[in-house]
Amino acid sequence: MDIIQKRILKIIIALAAVIITGTIGFTALKNISVENALYLTICLISTVGNREIGENPTEILFAIFIIFTGMGTLLYGVSNTTAFILEGQLNNILRRKKMNKNISKLNDHFIICGAGKTGLSVIEEFYKTRNPFVIIEKEEEALNQIPYKDNLLFVIGDSTQDEILELAGIKNAKGLISTLNDDTSNLFVVFTARSLNSNLRIISKAVDEDSERKLLKAGANATVSPNRIGGMRLASVALRPVVVSFLDTMLKQADLSLRMESVTISENSSLIRKTLGEAEIAKKTGLIVVAVEQAETKNYIYNPRAELMLNAGDSLIMMGNMEQLEKLRKLVE
Fold this sequence. Notes:
alpha/beta; Helix Hairpins; Alpha-Beta Plaits
């Protein structure tokens, strides 16, 4: 129960206490039935008025007490309820303005459309790896199940609409991931996003494998089929249980946060024309070099030797934790 609900409950209890006190008091003082005493109390609290008080000083003083306490409680309740509504709306407006301002400052971020079961997994991975992203979700309640929701940037709305995608900063975004529950909605998101940013990298969920061709034609760079991935996972657990267990441990342990990541060597990097051995990446960062994608040939060199020459545009595929990867990014810039 939040603070607003607690305050409203206190007001209801206080008002009920006044009504009960008045009913019991008038029943005793005027020797009338409970129903009549309740009616008399309600009349006094609501300022309807009543001439049945009589001239007994005790009854008059008790009636004055009921009027003041009842009206005071009612006015307090009305003012607090009004304040709750106005404050809540004001807080929502200020929060939204601040969030929109933070989103407008983003560059090279990802937009995640949908916070369903698939979307939540994507959000968790982006959050763990500290990659900037914005969520688009129709219902804010879907985000309430995320414990770190207050640390997220999100837009409430329909991700197939131009204005919603623009609020999420699509013009400055690096990529978009559509995780909606049906292929028709994903198709609309892909088409709309591509029309707003031709350089965007778009990855879409494909519920039906037959929809993959349509999604790619609409502008998606890649599609992912949960059914196919699920089947491969089942087969891998059966055939390669140790490998799967290792990968699960690598991804799930919070203290390790090991990831496979690629970093491209910039044209101004100090690593250009150095061999992998001379670069001393493992020594300087602690990362394991798994492979190198050569810029010229687009070929992958797996388990590269120390003699491999590095060039601008080559991508280093590494395994390590986030702190180590940040060190590597600084090294290759």
